[in-house]
């Protein structure tokens, strides 16, 4: 939603400007990272505000390390946010993917560029063109995430952020 995008942008800009902030951790709420955009918003009148692509680029350009704590699902735009992060930690039960292709849409926030850079073209093409949900253990093998944990994902991401 526009509200979430604006909050991400504001938080990233505050973190960048605050010398006491050494790293940033992005997580979802209630055990879910992000299921992506609400497609009902695509048919609404042109909205003003922040778009997902520039937010993901802002994350990627951050001079401070940004860690994604992925719980539940990181799908569509949610995965694109995670791809913009410098590090990704996933709970063992998490799933990731770009399912928008199953309704005739292509990922719109440069996921089609970031994913192949991260995991290679063949694996990325499979995920992009099928829309399948990749379990965390497979995501680790592919290099999509840096670590898979069974414990509290947010705490693990904070530990990694402090370490880097």
UniProtKB/TrEMBL annotation:
Q: Which GO terms describe its biological process?
A: fatty acid beta-oxidation
Q: Which InterPro entries match?
A: ClpP/crotonase-like_dom_sf, Enoyl-CoA_hyd/isom_CS, Enoyl-CoA_hydra/iso
Q: What keywords are annotated for this sequence in UniProt?
A: Isomerase, Lyase, Multifunctional enzyme
Q: Which Pfam families match?
A: ECH_1 (PF00378)
Kindly list the GO molecular function terms attached to this UniProt entry. Answer: (3S)-3-hydroxyacyl-CoA dehydrogenase (NAD+) activity; delta(3)-delta(2)-enoyl-CoA isomerase activity; enoyl-CoA hydratase activity
Instruction: Please provide one cellular component term from the Gene Ontology annotations of this protein.
Output: peroxisome
| Residue ranges that the Swiss-Prot or TrEMBL entry lists as coiled coil | none
Question: Which PROSITE patterns does the entry link to?
Answer: ENOYL_COA_HYDRATASE (PS00166)
- Catalyzed reaction equations: (3Z)-hexenoyl-CoA = (2E)-hexenoyl-CoA; (2S,3S)-3-hydroxy-2-methylbutanoyl-CoA = (2E)-2-methylbut-2-enoyl-CoA + H2O; (3E,5Z)-octadienoyl-CoA = (2E,5Z)-octadienoyl-CoA; a (3Z)-enoyl-CoA = a 4-saturated (2E)-enoyl-CoA
Question: Record's superkingdom?
Answer: Eukaryota
What family is this? Answer: In the C-terminal section; belongs to the 3-hydroxyacyl-CoA dehydrogenase family. Belongs to the enoyl-CoA hydratase/isomerase family.
How is this protein named in the record?
Peroxisomal bifunctional enzyme
- Per the UniProt entry, what species is this protein from, by scientific name? Atlantisia rogersi
Q: What is the lineage of its organism?
A: Eukaryota, Metazoa, Chordata, Craniata, Vertebrata
